[in-house]
Amino acid sequence: MNGDVPLPQYEAFDQLATMVAIARSDGHCLLANSTLENAVAVSRRALLRGNVLDWFVDPLPMRETLLALQRDEVTSGRFEAQLKRAPLGSSEPLLVRVSASQMEQEGWVLLEIVEIEQQTRQDREERALGLAQANKELLRNLAHEIKNPLGGIRGAAQLLEMELNTRSAGARVRGALGMGGRGSRGGAARGLSEYTQVIIHEADRLQALVDRLLAPHRKPHVVSDVNIHEVCERVRLLISSEFPKGLEVQRDYDTSIPEFRGDREQLIQAVLNIVRNATEALAEQIAAGSARIVLRTRIARQLTIGKQRHRLALELHVQDNGPGVPEAIRDRVFHPLVSGRDGGSGLGLTLAQTFVQQHQGTIEFDSAPGRTNFKIVIPLP
What we know:
This protein has 381 residues and is an alpha+beta fold. The chain has helices at residues 7-10, 34-40, 44-49, 60-70, 116-176, 183-218, 228-242, 264-281, 283-288, 348-357, and strands spanning 19-24, 29-32, 76-83, 94-102, 108-115, 224-226, 247-252, 260-262, 291-305, 308-320, 362-368, 371-380. A hairpin with a 2-residue loop joins β11 (362-368) and β12 (371-380). It is elongated and about 115 Å long.
């Protein structure tokens, strides 16, 4: 870093997801961590030769804060600013929130710089994770409460059907022996048997729903080496076989993405649920022969997921040209039992989110008429 700063004391700053710098009260930079270096696309050596005032589109708030700290008018200050980035990165400045605090070393100032969009995303991820955990507990408890009485209902319906079948068979025997007056009872028994079949069928349907609710908690997390493109190809083949006409599934893969440790079957199910959700939204386009889904993979660098900084991460995009996610459910699209179509179970995206979170990843989406994009982000080693 810089000879003015004892390296061992501050080297832990490089492990932080937050941009951190130490400067003198005149703005001369003494230390810059790797997160700041990567964000502004300027080498640390160049940052240490410069002045922190030069980092901002408008240096006035930074200058006023440094002066106030130097005069001991305040011990800390906060402001929002635009942080410059080198042309080799992105020419658009970063909107950031800067916190400047006095340090024990006289004349030194600690700067903590947080990208506002990143902070918003982290807050959203934290809320989503907390909600997912609450939903998981709710669904698990609800499923167990339903499961036991459901088995009793089905068993009682089966016993009732057996009794009705016995009576119906007895009526047929008596009819064959010429014992009149029993045929109507046999017919009534057969009619009631149809009702028991309805009860059994509906109980089985609810049992299947309960099994889907419990699926993420019942199956063990089987970890192995995963190639994300094998996952995508498996999903593409399944969807292409379901929709041989009217739907084009395009591939846009970054073949340099390395394998990673994960549960292959869970990831296949997660991607499949998202793609199937897209096909349901594309019903009209499929009928018209204009439906399109794009599977796109990319590498993201220096990404923060859940307050943890990752050097590399996988981005898997599932993009469709459908009408978009209905406005009424956009804030609840990952909630269980929320569906944008009649007859939908509302579990596909909930389970997809659960499986991705078990890989320390996230799912987010943006949607507009003609373009909806679901993005899965999973950290890579």
